[in-house]
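Same chain as my last thread, 203 residues:
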Amino acid sequence: VSTRSSIGDPIVILIDDIQWANKTEMDALKAMMVGAMNPFMFIFTCRPGDHPFLKVTDELGSKTEIALQCLSRNSVRELVADMLKIDNPNECTSLANFVSRVSHGNPFFIRQQIILFCDDGLLRFGDNGWVWDIKEIEAVHDDVSDDVVIMLAQKMKRLPSLTQEALKICASIGSKIDLFILGLLIRKMHAVADGSDAEDNES
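reply #2:
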């Protein structure tokens, strides 16, 4: 970092979800920022809350905090129109208003809701573009959760059982896993399950 920042070309480093950083990673980031020379900019994103990394940035002095707000209803309408390639945002007002209400203007939820509508066949591509019945969408998804964990859990329950088993194994091991090892573990799980079933039948 010191070598690159001493050349003189402006450099910007963006690190997302800094709230997940552990102490070792925070110490490494602090060393990078201390050793960096101008012109250099670090941009960190994190969820709202009292994160240990904020204390690290406080110790370093100069910083600017920008709190991102949820999208307004008009912004949601423009975003939905852009996602569906609709030239006139007013044409998707009913859909955008519903999405805005259930997502509270969270861009991630907005995208997930649109994908969910497509998966459920509530948002379909016809001869003249995207079509939907807002009453049908409201009847099916009016009680949708605005909790990201619950929403993702609901989506994972729709996956094939084998895919769910693979996700459970990956979640237990970490962010990286060899596909060959994953296959062995899945076969082992099936063998254990088949053995249990056989024992139950014998008893």
